[in-house]
Write a structure and sequence with these properties.
The complex is a heterodimer of chains A (499) and B (508). With 499 residues, chain A is an all-alpha fold. Chain A has one domain. Chain A is built from 21 helices and 2 strands. Chain B is mostly helical. Chain B has a domain of 194 residues. Chain B contains 23 helices and 2 strands. Chain B starts with a helix and ends in an 11-residue tail after the last helix. Classes of the chains: A mainly alpha (499), B mainly alpha (508). Chains A and B meet through α18, α19 and α21 of A and α5, α6 and α7 of B.
C-alpha cells in the first residue's frame, strides 16, 4: 500500500520558483489580455513584458544564495542568480527593439511576447537546477519557444532558419537525453551533486569501478549536445543561416542569452568531470575552443554580409569563452560571465544597428540584407550612427578601453594563471585576425563613398531603438568604470557557489 | 599643479570633443590654439621638472580595477619628458603647416584625439593604461591615412593597423604573464611598471618575455624585417599623417624598449645585444641603399627614417649611459628632423602635385628660403656637426664602440650612406638647370609655412650646439636606470656589460 506523503509547504521553499512563475504568469496575462481585446498596439505588450521582466529581476535579486527548494530540484547558487540576472537584463535590452518605426509582422502578435516570456522561464529553469531532467525540460521549453519566435519573422529564409535550428536542436536534445541516460546508468542518479559523489567513489575504486567507456560515452554525448547549443565547431553550421534568417535583434539575442544558459549547465556538468580528474574532457574542450575561434574567424573573413560576419564573429567569441570553461578555475568561470556581461551590450548594440537599417520589403541586393556596401559612406549620411557602429566594431575587436577588451584580457589572464600560456597566445592571434573583418566595416563606413539606396541605413529608427543603442554605447564606452564592481560581484557569487 | 600630467593627457581629448561644436571655418584656428596651449602646458611641465631628480615625477595614482591590479598611474622622468614635449610641439607645428582643405574639422578633432593617446603612452606607468593608449593611437592614425591619403590609402591604413595590432596582442600576453609572475611572487595583482621593475626574473622567463615584448615594439619601430608597412603608410598618408607618424608614433616602439625591455629583463637584453645589433645594422645599411634607389622624394625620407631608427636601436642596446642617452636624444632629433623633412616635401607636393624627383631640378633658384631650410634639415639628417642629428648619432656610436668596434664601424657607414642619398636628393631637386616649366612658376614659402619651420630650424641648431639642458635630465634618468639594471642582473656576463656610470659625461 502506498504511504501518504506529507510535505510541509515550508520545506518546498517555493520562493525559489518565484522568478520563473512570474515570467510564466506574465506570459499568461498577455494571452488573456489578447483574448479580451484583440486590437491592442504592440507598444502595450512591449511595456508589459518589460515590467514583468522588471519584477522578475527584482525577484531574482531577492533570492538567497545557496538554497535548495521544491524537493531539492531547484538549486539557487551564485551562478544561477547571476546568470538569471544576465538573462533577464539581456531580454530587457532586446524587447524594446520591437518598437521600430515601421510595422514588422511578428510583433503584431501578442503570442510573440507570451512565447518570449515562456522562453525566459525556460532559461531560468535551466540555470537554477542541477537535476538533469529539469535542465532538459527548461532547455526544451526555451528552445521550442525560440524556434517559433524565429519563424514568426515572416520570410522564407526565416522558416528555413527555424526548421534548421529545430532539426539541429532536436538532434542536440537527443544527445542530451542519451548522455543523461548513461549518467543515470552509471550512478543511479540524475542529481549532479549525487552523480559527482557516486562517480568519485566508483572511479577511485571504493565501490565497483565504472567502465571507462561509460564515462567517455556520457561526457561525449553531453558535450555534443552542448556544442550544438553553444555553436562550437564542428556543430556550428546551423548558426550563420539561422542568424541570417532571424530578425537582427533576435539574432543578437541568440548569440548571447541562450548561450549564457548553456554555459551555466556546461560549467555544472563539465566542471564536474574535470574536477573528478577526467583530463581528456578538458583536452577535448580546449581543442574545440581553439578550432572554434580560429575557423570561425577565418570564415568571418570571407563573408560579404555584415550579419553573417557578426554570426561567425559571435561563434568565434563563444570559442574564446569555452576556453575559459576548460580552465575550471574560479577566475575562468568569472571570465565567462564577465565576458558575456560586457559582450551583451556591444553585440546587441551592433545587431540593433543592423535592425535599424533593415528595409521592410526589399533586400539590399538579391542575396543579402546587410552587405558591406550598404554601410559605405555612412559617416556622410548618419554621422552619429557611423560613430556608434564604429565603436561597437572596435569594442568587438578588443581595442581598449571599450567593454569587450576587459573581458578579453580577463579571459587571457585566467588562461595565463592556469598555466595555459599557449592558449593566451592563440587568443591574441585570433583577436588580431578578427580585427580585420571588424575593421572592414569601419573602413566601409568611414572611408568609402555612399552607394545607391543608402537611405535604408536609418529606415527603422525610432526613439526606443535609439535609447537602447544609446544605453549599449554608454555601457561599451564607460566599461572601465564599472568593470571593478562587476568583477568583484561575479567573483564573489561564483566562489560562494564553489566553482 | 601636481596633476599636470592628467591635464596634459585629457586636455586635448576634451578639446577634441568640444571641437565637434566649433564651426567648420574656425576649426583650424581652434585646433592650433588648443595645440599651442597644450604645448605651453608641456613647457611648463619642463620648467617645473626637477632635473636633478632621476626618478618619476608628478606621479598620480588612482586605483581603477583593484581586484585586477589596474590603476590610473602616470608619471614622467627625464626619458619621457622630452618625448612628450616633442609630441606636443610636432602636433602644433603640423597643424600650423597643414594644407588639407576638405573635412578640416574632422582632421582637427582626430589630431586632438591622437595627441591624447601620444601623450598618454609616454606618461603611463601602468602597463594596462600604457597598452590602452598604445592601441587607441592606431584608430586616429587609421582614419588620417584612410581618409586623406593617396590612391592606395585604404590598403596602407589597414596594413598599418593590422601589423601593429597583431604585434601588440602578443605583447599583451607578455604583460599578462608579467602580472601573473608578480602575483605569484607577492600575492598582489599589479600592472604598475615601477612594481615590475623591482622583480628579479629567472633568465628563461626573461627571454620569453623579452621576445613577447620585442614583437610588439619591433613592429612599431619598425625593425627589419617588420618594416614593410612603413613605406606604404608614409607613401599614402597625407603630410600631417607622415609628420606625426615619423616624429612621434615610431618613437613609441623605441620608448617601449627603454621603459619595459631594458630595465625589466636586463639579462635577456644583454643576450639580445648581438642579434639586435645585427638587425640594426641591416636596417641602417639596407634601407639606406633602398632609399638611394627611390624616385619619389617622400619614399627617400620614409626609408631614411627606418635607417635612423636602426641607429636608435643600436644605441639602446649599447648598455651604457652614452649609448642610451644618445639614443633617446636621437629619438628627439629624428622626430624633429624627419617631421620637418616630411613637411617640406608636403609643401612642394602642394605646389607641384608630384613627389618625383625627376620633375624637379633647380628649385633653389626659384625658392631660396625653401632651399635653405631644406638644406639645413638635410644636414641635420645626415648628422653634420653642430646640428641636432650629430649629437645623437655620435653618442650612439661612441657608446656602442665599447660593445663592438667592428659593428660600430659598420653602423658608422650610416653617416656616409645618409650623405649619399640625402645629398643626391638635394642635388636632383634643388640644383642643376630647370627642366620643368612648372618649376619656374613656383612661389617661395608663405609666411605661415616659414614660421612653422623656423622654430624647428632653431631647435635643430640650438640643441646641436648646446644639447646640455636636454641631455642632462635624460642622462640622469638613464644612469639611474643603468645602475639599477646592473644591480638586478643575475648572470655575470650581464653584470659586466651593463656599465654603472662613474663620471658625469660632458658633451659640448
Amino acid at each position: 500500500m502506498l504511504q501518504p506523503i506529507n510535505v510541509s509547504l515550508e520545506s518546498l521553499n517555493l520562493i525559489t520558483l518565484a522568478p520563473m512563475l512570474i515570467a510564466i504568469a506574465g506570459g499568461l496575462i498577455i494571452l488573456i489580455i489578447d483574448l479580451i481585446n484583440e486590437k491592442l498596439h504592440k507598444s502595450l505588450y512591449v511595456m508589459l513584458t518589460l515590467l514583468i521582466l522588471f519584477i522578475d529581476f527584482g525577484a531574482v535579486l531577492g533570492l538567497n544564495v545557496n538554497e535548495r527548494g521544491f524537493f531539492d530540484v531547484m538549486m539557487i547558487d551564485g551562478i544561477s542568480i547571476i546568470s538569471q540576472l544576465m538573462v533577464i537584463a539581456g531580454s530587457m535590452l532586446f524587447i524594446p527593439l520591437a518598437l521600430t518605426s515601421k510595422r514588422f509582422h511578428e510583433f503584431e502578435y501578442p503570442e510573440f511576447f507570451a512565447l518570449f516570456l515562456f522562453m525566459i522561464a525556460g532559461f531560468q529553469f535551466m540555470v537554477a537546477s542541477d537535476n538533469l531532467i529539469l535542465i532538459f525540460v527548461g532547455l526544451e521549453t526555451a528552445s521550442l519557444s525560440l524556434y517559433t519566435l524565429i519563424a514568426l519573422h515572416n520570410r522564407s529564409n526565416s522558416y528555413e532558419a527555424a526548421v534548421k535550428y529545430f532539426t539541429m536542436g532536436a538532434l542536440a536534445a537527443g544527445f542530451f537525453a542519451m548522455g543523461s541516460a548513461v549518467v543515470y546508468a552509471m550512478t543511479g542518479s540524475i542529481e549532479l551533486y549525487q552523480v559527482a559523489e557516486v562517480l568519485a567513489a566508483r572511479m577511485s575504486g571504493a565501490i565497483e569501478p565504472v567502465p571507462v567507456i561509460a564515462v567517455l560515452g556520457s561526457s561525449i554525448l553531453l558535450m555534443v549536445a552542448f556544442a550544438f547549443k553553444l555553436s562550437l565547431f564542428p556543430f556550428h553550421t546551423w548558426a550563420p543561416d539561422v542568424y541570417e534568417g532571424a530578425s537582427a535583434p533576435l539574432a543578437g539575442y541568440m548569440s548571447v542569452v541562450p548561450k549564457i544558459a548553456a554555459f551555466v549547465v556546461s560549467i555544472r556538468i563539465f566542471g564536474m568531470y574535470i574536477d573528478l580528474g577526467v583530463e581528456w574532457v578538458r583536452d577535448i574542450i580546449l581543442v574545440l575552443a581553439v578550432l572554434t575561434m580560429t575557423l570561425a574567424n577565418v570564415m568571418a573573413l570571407v563573408q560579404q554580409d555584415v550579419k553573417r560576419m557578426l554570426a561567425y564573429s559571435s561563434i568565434s567569441h563563444a570559442g574564446f569563452i569555452v576556453a575559459a570553461l576548460a580552465l575550471d578555475t574560479t577566475e575562468g568561470n568569472t571570465a565567462i560571465f564577465l565576458y558575456y556581461a560586457l559582450f551583451m551590450f556591444t553585440n546587441l548594440g551592433a545587431f540593433a544597428m543592423l535592425w535599424i537599417s533593415r528595409h521592410k520589403v526589399r533586400r539590399f541586393n538579391n542575396r543579402y540584407d546587410h552587405p558591406y556596401e550598404k554601410f559605405a559612406g555612412m559617416i556622410k549620411i548618419v554621422p552619429m550612427g557611423a560613430v556608434v557602429m564604429g565603436l561597437f566594431m572596435l569594442s568587438l575587436a578588443g581595442v581598449p578601453p571599450f567593454s569587450v577588451f576587459w573581458g578579453k584580457i580577463y579571459v587571457m589572464q585566467a588562461a595565463v594563471n592556469a598555466g595555459y600560456i599557449w592558449l593566451a597566445i592563440v587568443m591574441g592571434l585570433n583577436s588580431a585576425i578578427a580585427a580585420y573583418y571588424y575593421l572592414k566595416l569601419v573602413v566601409y563606413m568611414f572611408l568609402k563613398e555612399p552607394v545607391k539606396d543608402v537611405d535604408t541605413v536609418y529606415y527603422n529608427i525610432s526613439k526606443p531603438l535609439m535609447a537602447i543603442i544609446g544605453l549599449a554605447t554608454v555601457a561599451t564606452v564607460a566599461a572601465i568604470f564599472y568593470v571593478q564592481p562587476l568583477i568583484s560581484y561575479l567573483y564573489y557569487m561564483i566562489s560562494a557557489s564553489g566553482y | 599643479m601636481e596633476n599636470i600630467l592628467s591635464i596634459l593627457v585629457f586636455f586635448p581629448a576634451v578639446a577634441g570633443l568640444l571641437g565637434f561644436v566649433v564651426d567648420k571655418k574656425s576649426a583650424r584656428a581652434y585646433g592650433i590654439t588648443v595645440a599651442a596651449i597644450e604645448f605651453l602646458l608641456s613647457l611648463w611641465l619642463w620648467f617645473s621638472f626637477d632635473s636633478a631628480n632621476a626618478g618619476m615625477q608628478f606621479v598620480e595614482m588612482i586605483p581603477l580595477i583593484p581586484d585586477f591590479g589596474v590603476s590610473y598611474y602616470l608619471g614622467v622622468d627625464g626619458i619621457s619628458l622630452f618625448i612628450v614635449i616633442m609630441a606636443t610641439l610636432m602636433t602644433l607645428i603640423g597643424m600650423m603647416s597643414m594644407s588639407i582643405k576638405e573635412n578640416v574639422k574632422n582632421m582637427i578633432v582626430t589630431l586632438l584625439f591622437l595627441e591624447m593617446t601620444m601623450v598618454g603612452v609616454f606618461v603611463a606607468l601602468d602597463a594596462i593604461i600604457f597598452y590602452l593608449f598604445w592601441e587607441l593611437s592606431l584608430v586616429p592614425m587609421l582614419y588620417i591615412v584612410g581618409a586623406w591619403g593617396g590612391p592606395l590609402r585604404v590598403y596602407a591604413a589597414i596594413k598599418f593597423f593590422l601589423y601593429t595590432f597583431a604585434g601588440s596582442l602578443i605583447m599583451l600576453v607578455g604583460l599578462l604573464f608579467m602580472a601573473y609572475v608578480y602575483h605569484n611572487l607577492t600575492g598582489v595583482w599589479s600592472f604598475a611598471i615601477t612594481d615590475w621593475y623591482a622583480m628579479v626574473l629567472p633568465v628563461n622567463y626573461q627571454l620569453w618575455l623579452f621576445a613577447a615584448f620585442f614583437i610588439g615594439f619591433a613592429i612599431k619601430v619598425p625593425m627589419f624585417p617588420f618594416h614593410t608597412w612603413l613605406p606604404y603608410a608614409h607613401g599614402q598618408a597625407p603630410t600631417i599623417g607622415s609628420v606625426i607618424l615619423a616624429a612621434v608614433l615610431l618613437k613609441m616602439g623605441t620608448y617601449g624598449f627603454v621603459r619595459f625591455s631594458l630595465p625589466m629583463f636586463p639579462d635577456a637584453s644583454v643576450m639580445a645585444i648581438t642579434p639586435i645589433a645585427f638587425i640594426s645594422i641591416i636596417m641602417i645599411i639596407y634601407t639606406a641603399m633602398v632609399a638611394y634607389a627611390q624616385k619619389d622624394i617622400k619614399q627617400v625620407i620614409a626609408y631614411s627614417s627606418v635607417s635612423h631608427m636602426g641607429i636608435i636601436m643600436l644605441g639602446l642596446f649599447a648598455m651604457n649611459a652614452e649609448g642610451i642617452s644618445g639614443s633617446v636624444f636621437q629619438m628627439l632629433a629624428h622626430g624633429i628632423v624627419s617631421g620637418a623633412l616630411f613637411m617640406l616635401v608636403g609643401m612642394i607636393y602642394d605646389r607641384m602635385h608630384t613627389k618625383e624627383m625627376s620633375k624637379f631640378g633647380g628649385i633653389a633658384a626659384v625658392m631660396p628660403k625653401y632651399a635653405v631650410i631644406f638644406g639645413i634639415m638635410t644636414m641635420a639628417s645626415v648628422g653634420l656637426p653642430l646640428t641636432m642629428g650629430f649629437v645623437g648619432e655620435f653618442l650612439v656610436l661612441l657608446g656602442f664602440y665599447e660593445i663592438s668596434p667592428i659593428m660600430t664601424i659598420l653602423a658608422g657607414t650610416s653617416i656616409i650612406l645618409g650623405a649619399v642619398y640625402m645629398l643626391s636628393v638635394l642635388k636632383k631637386t634643388f640644383f642643376g638647370p630647370i627642366t620643368n616649366e612648372a618649376v619656374k612658376k613656383l612661389k617661395d614659402l608663405t609666411p605661415l609655412e616659414t614660421w612653422s619651420l623656423v622654430p624647428l630650424v632653431l631647435i635643430v641648431i640650438w640643441l646641436g650646439v648646446y644639447p646640455k639642458p636636454v641631455l642632462e635630465p635624460i642622462d640622469n634618468s638613464v644612469k639611474a636606470m643603468l645602475t639599477f639594471m646592473h644591480e638586478k642582473a643575475i648572470t655575470p656576463e650581464a653584470k659586466e656589460i651593463i656599465k654603472v656610470p662613474q663620471t658625469i659625461m660632458e658633451v659640448k
